[in-house]
Design a protein that fits this description.
heterodimer; A: 79 residues; alpha+beta; Glutaredoxin; 3 helices; 42% helix; globular; B: 355 residues; mainly alpha; 17 helices; 0% strand
Chain lengths: 79, 355
């Protein structure tokens, strides 16, 4: 599984990263979380407003901080 | 001492309501409803008009401006709307306009608001025209927008809510009319706290009737977030401006005759100098206002002041570098030149009218 967080480093992006890591820890998974900060990279995903969460190339959330429960659901769907 | 005066005169009556408005916009206005006008298939007319005013809704933090700009440019409506948004985003936010009007006078606030909207559209159209060939080769792809949530409120209710907030701001910050003036203004001034109180009661009912508890909490949180982000910067800006530039009647580190020589009066040179230096300098959110207050006190002309306000917040060396990474050196240079030239012209016009 591949998880990416798109965002230019604002506080919302940091909260999103924390929630993703918490969700992974609660699900007992050890997955690398990549942060994408380059605006051109972010635009390539078709994401206009950050933070965004990408799981295996699929855009899961845009422009908001998803909560831990929501992220766990995405991870479980995947497995 | 200057900080205390700032706090007393401006913060309580003017900035706090403005922060609540900014918070309400960030939380209650649906970003998706605005973003859909930036898609590749959106009508150009709407893309430009929405881009020129959407700074009020989308761009309260500069970190959201650049990804949005890159997205609109590469995937969405193209270079015109993208640069229109890039300019309007930082230039037109509610807090900046309110603070400008309050401290530098409503004429300057109004000139700034009108200038920012007009400039955004003109910049976008010019960029789209200059680079029309490149734009045709762009590939538009799938874009992802935040989901539109059903909030259980009508558009009218949201409009009334915003209107009430704005009215509270206007009456709470209502300036004392000049001595001896008659008519409506002194009457309004005498009654301003009663009107404000009445409006607050109305606001209370709206909040109770139309919003759920979570929304009220996120509203207060985002308002506090803005305050925490912006007050330290603003305080620092006031202090620095005070030390370097002094205020009317007090001289300071930078002698007044330098300022009068560089940006005094309303010459082409003064306006150009103000817009170029505004374009290169980085102003943290809102700090341009106390700095300009200092400069105006030290003899800067009103025209150059507007030039600096129009060129300043949208451009800075650091953000030029990022923009350059997105659309290349040539387009970035064109973007900066357009803004500097238009700011200079607007400054000279305003200087000629306002004296």
């Amino acid at each position: 599984m591949e998880i990416k967080i798109l965002g230019s480093g604002c506080s919302k992006c940091q909260s999103t990263e924390k929630n993703v890591k918490d969700a992974l820890a609660e699900s007992g998974l050890d997955v690398q979380v990549d942060k994408v900060t380059d605006v051109m990279e972010i635009a390539k995903y078709g994401v206009f407003i950050t933070p965004a969460v990408i799981i295996d190339g699929k855009v899961k959330s845009v422009g908001k901080i998803p909560d831990t429960e929501e992220i766990k659901k995405w991870i479980e769907q995947r497995n | 001492m200057m900080l205390q005066e700032y706090a007393r005169e401006h913060v309580l009556t003017c900035l706090i309501p403005a922060f609540f408005i900014a918070g309400a916009i960030a939380v209650f206005v649906s970003q998706a409803s605005v973003l859909k006008y930036f898609g590749a298939r959106a009508k150009k007319f709407f893309s430009y008009s929405v881009a020129s005013v959407s700074g009020t809704v989308l761009a309260v933090c500069s970190c959201t401006v650049l990804p949005l700009f890159a997205g609109i440019y590469t995937r969405g409506a193209g270079i015109g709307p993208a640069t229109a948004f890039l300019y309007s985003g930082p230039a037109i936010n509610v807090l900046a306009i309110v603070l400008t009007a309050r401290i530098l006078g409503w004429q300057m606030g109004l000139a700034r608001a009108i200038g920012a909207v007009l400039f955004a559209i003109l910049t976008g159209l010019l960029m789209a025209f200059f680079f029309r060939k490149d734009d045709a080769a762009r590939t538009a792809g799938q874009i992802y927008l935040p989901k539109e949530e059903d909030k259980g409120r009508t558009l009218n209710q949201e409009a009334f809510f915003m209107l009430t907030l704005v009215l509270i701001l206007i009456f709470a910050a209502f300036a004392k009319p000049a001595e001896g003036s008659t008519g409506l203004w002194p009457i309004i001034f005498a009654a301003k706290w009663y009107i404000t109180g009445g409006l607050l009661v109305v606001l209370g009912f709206m909040l109770k009737g139309w919003f759920v508890k979570d929304e009220r909490i996120t509203w207060v949180q985002s308002t506090l977030g803005f305050m925490k982000q912006i007050f330290p910067l603003l305080g620092a800006g006031v202090l620095v401006a005070g030390f370097m530039l002094g205020r009317p009647g007090h001289s300071a580190l930078i002698p007044e005759h330098y300022i009068q020589y560089l940006v005094g009066g309303n010459s082409l040179w003064a306006n150009l100098f103000a817009s170029v230096s505004g374009a290169l300098m980085y102003f943290a959110t809102l700090t341009e206002v106390p700095i300009l207050q200092g400069l105006l006190g030290a003899g800067m002309g009103k025209g150059p002041a507007l030039s600096l306000l129009l060129a300043g917040p949208a451009l800075s060396l650091p953000n030029m570098l990022v923009i350059g990474g997105v659309m290349g050196v040539k387009k970035t240079a064109a973007f900066c030149v357009i803004i500097v030239v238009m700011s200079t012209i607007a400054g000279m016009t305003y200087g000629a009218i306002a004296g």
